[in-house]
Design a protein that fits this description.
By secondary structure, the protein is mainly α. The protein is built from 8 helices and 5 strands. The protein has one domain. Helix 1 packs antiparallel against helix 2, helix 2 packs antiparallel against helix 3 and helix 4 packs across helix 6.
Amino acid sequence: MGLDYLNLNDTVRQYMLAEFEHGDLYLSPRLNESGKQKWESLLKDAIQYHTDVWLERELTRRNCFLDTEYLKSSMGRTVKRAINKAQSARILSEREFNRYYLRGLCVAALEQGKSHLILYKAKASAVPGETLRKTVGTPIDAAALLSTMRARSVSLELVLSLEGVAHYTLSARIPSVWELRPLLEAQKKPTSLA
């Protein structure tokens, strides 16, 4: 089950594609050689026609991940471990599709004259922590978010430096005309980006 993209439509997809063409593709070290060759095309197809769920299925179906990886242990030794391919496909698909969705959404909001987006929980999680509860419904500056996400290939949770929030559960939506003003007035300062 992927993320719920509340404002995903043809216009947002066009902006997502324009952001994709910007040329800062993230290449996961867990992808095998075949996966690295297919990744750009699969992600572009997902942006144009599908969602993160389709992307996850294609990455799995096409066997795009390595079997094992090497990590440094806390003792400084190199340890070999198996890669959970299904989990890797889900995380990569959700993270990267959402990243381009958010960038496209920022452009769409700014084009509509809306300076902020509203954060929301895009995926059900077993136990929504206090940090997540406090974050949902928060306005975030669209221009700042766009600039940060263009500069760094990170998830929204990392952009916001949220501790204790499961990655890839947050997204954003364009606020209606009537809801943003009270939110901004009630909050002394909109969520800023580090």
